[in-house]
Every structure is written in structure tokens, then in C-alpha cells.
Specification:
With 276 residues, the chain is an alpha+beta fold. Among the domains are: 5-26 and 83-168, Ku70, Chain: A, Domain 2, CATH 2.40.290.10; 180-228 and 243-275, no CATH class. It has six helices and nine strands; from the N terminus they run E-E-E-E-H-E-E-H-E-E-E-H-H-H-H. The protein has helices at 76-82, 119-132, 185-198, 210-223, 245-257, 261-275; strands spanning 5-11, 14-22, 62-67, 70-74, 89-97, 106-114, 134-142, 145-154, 157-163. Helix 3 (185-198) packs parallel to helix 5. The longest helix has 15 residues, at 261-275.
């Protein structure tokens, strides 16, 4: 895959030449908006919200809305004045215990691939991070923006994960969550037993995008000229239903105890996907 960024990874006075490569790929289907009559793609134009007229690129500027409907315009010189000094170095500032970092901070992963001549230093840093159980936290500049980054070990690779800054996280106190006092001891014991019965090692291959697969089957069928039949969903029952947690938990536990329950559920789901 293409190199996104090339530079060096610095910890102390040690410099490791590295290249940043994608660690994930997008598999979402993309669609174009078309004119129903002739399937011509729809274009988007830049239109003034005041006059309704198309505005050419040369007359468009960038503005920051500091109050509703009020803007301060920023020029290219303003952006250059605020720009950070271009750097080709990922500076590791701290090594933090991995279990102390909230998952919400992590955003996008990339592989750090060693550059020519940097294999030994790369391996040294990888083994040091792995043995210490830490994450290297640092900063780097990519695409004219500064990013916070966490460097961790995944098998034989150093993986850089772009991180969110603390100011980007919403404090949980902004929302209202139910109190633990709502849970009765017997309900908790049964819920814990259900979790234990359903516990198993993480196997990512088991989790697939069923909607994408079904949509691709629809697309392939339409390409072959087949008629698509849609199952009508069952109407929802009106009114507010009171959920009996204990009866639901007992029923769930009985199902979980059956050895073939999961296999049958998987087969039923597979049949539904085929019908779709």
C-alpha cells in the first residue's frame, strides 16, 4: 500500500527511519446521486445563501463563525502565521502504561514500517515497548496539522494510532446514566451467569457486515435483471411495554445452556441473509 508519511521516530536521542502505511481499509459501499430520468450524475455547485447565485472559486474565502451569523475571515497569510514548523519526526514524549489510556482517545491505526537501515533500531524500540507494557505517546505533523499519537506493538509491528486530544472528548457528566442501585442482586447474579455462559475468545472473522453483504447480493441480482422481493417487517406493538428482566434472563440462560444454540442461531441468520 502507498506510503502516507515518511520520516523518523525519535525516542531520546535515537532516530528510527519509518514510513506510515495504512493498517485498515474502508469496505463501505459508495453511491452517486443520479437524475432519475436519465441516470446522469448530479453535480454540486457553490451557491450564495443570500443571492442564490453560483459563486466562482476565486471569490470564496474561509471564515470562522465566532457568533451566530458573524465571521472573521482568514487569509492564506493567517494560516501560514499559525502553521507549525514542518517536521518529519514523530517525537515520543512519554511512555505510558497501556491500561491507563482510555479507548476513546484512539482514532485511526497505521503501520510504522522501518526505513532502510533502521531495522535494528526499530526492533529495539519494539521489544522495549512490548516488554514494558507501555504505549509511546508523542506528537507529529501530517498534512499541515499536528496530531497526538500512540505507538504500541501488534505482533512484530509497531502501530501508530492517531489519538484525540483531551479537549475532544465529551465528559460523561454531560449525560444522565442510570444508577447501579436500580439493579437487584439476584438480577445481577443471573446477568453475570449469562455473560459467563456466552464468554469466548475474540475471533474477529466471526463478525461480518451483514448489511453490506445483503446489499451486494441485491446489486448483483439487479445487474442480472432479477426482481427484488422485500419481506414486509412485522408491525410494532403500540404502547409502552414493561420489561420483566427476571423472566428474560431466565429464558436467556436456558437458551445459553443448550450446546447447539449458537450454531442454530448462526444457521438461521445465514438463511435470512440468503433470502435477502
Amino acid at each position: 500500500m502507498a506510503t502516507i508519511w515518511k520520516g523518523s521516530l525519535a525516542f531520546g536521542l535515537v532516530q528510527v527511519p519509518v514510513e506510515l502505511k495504512p493498517a485498515v481499509r474502508a469496505e463501505r459501499l459508495s453511491f452517486r446521486q443520479l437524475h432519475e430520468e436519465d441516470h446522469a450524475p448530479i453535480k454540486y455547485e457553490r451557491v450564495s445563501s443570500t443571492t442564490g447565485e453560483v459563486v466562482p472559486w476565486r471569490e470564496i474565502v474561509k471564515g470562522y463563525e465566532y457568533a451566530r451569523g458573524k465571521f472573521v475571515v482568514l487569509t492564506d497569510e493567517d494560516f501560514r502565521a499559525a502553521a507549525l514548523e514542518s517536521s518529519k519526526t514523530i517525537d515520543i514524549l512519554d511512555f505510558v502504561p497501556a491500561d491507563q489510556i482510555d479507548w476513546r482517545y484512539f482514532e485511526t491505526p497505521y503501520y510504522l514500517v522501518p526505513g532502510k537501515g533502521g531495522e535494528k533500531a526499530y526492533a529495539l524500540l519494539r521489544e522495549a515497548i512490548a516488554s514494558s507494557g507501555t504505549v509511546g505517546v508523542g506528537k507529529f505533523v501530517m498534512r499541515q496539522s499536528q496530531h497526538l499519537a500512540g505507538i504500541r506493538v501488534v505482533e512484530d509491528a509497531l502501530v501508530l494510532e492517531v489519538m484525540r486530544f483531551a479537549s475532544e472528548l465529551v465528559d460523561p457528566s454531560a449525560y444522565s446514566f442510570p444508577s447501579p442501585s436500580l439493579v437487584r442482586p439476584q438480577e445481577l447474579r443471573m446477568a453475570e451467569q449469562l455473560v459467563e455462559n456466552l464468554a469466548q475468545p475474540f475471533e474477529p472473522e466471526r463478525y461480518t457486515d451483514d448489511y453490506r453483504d445483503a446489499l451486494m447480493r441485491v446489486i448483483r441480482a439487479k445487474l442480472k435483471g432479477k426482481k427484488i422481493e422485500v419481506d414486509e417487517p412485522e408491525p410494532e406493538q403500540g404502547g409502552t411495554q414493561v420489561i420483566d428482566l427476571m423472566s428474560r434472563l431466565k429464558a436467556s440462560l436456558e437458551e445459553a445452556k443448550k450446546p447447539a444454540t449458537r450454531k442454530r442461531a448462526a444457521k438461521v441468520a445465514a438463511k435470512k441473509r440468503k433470502r435477502a
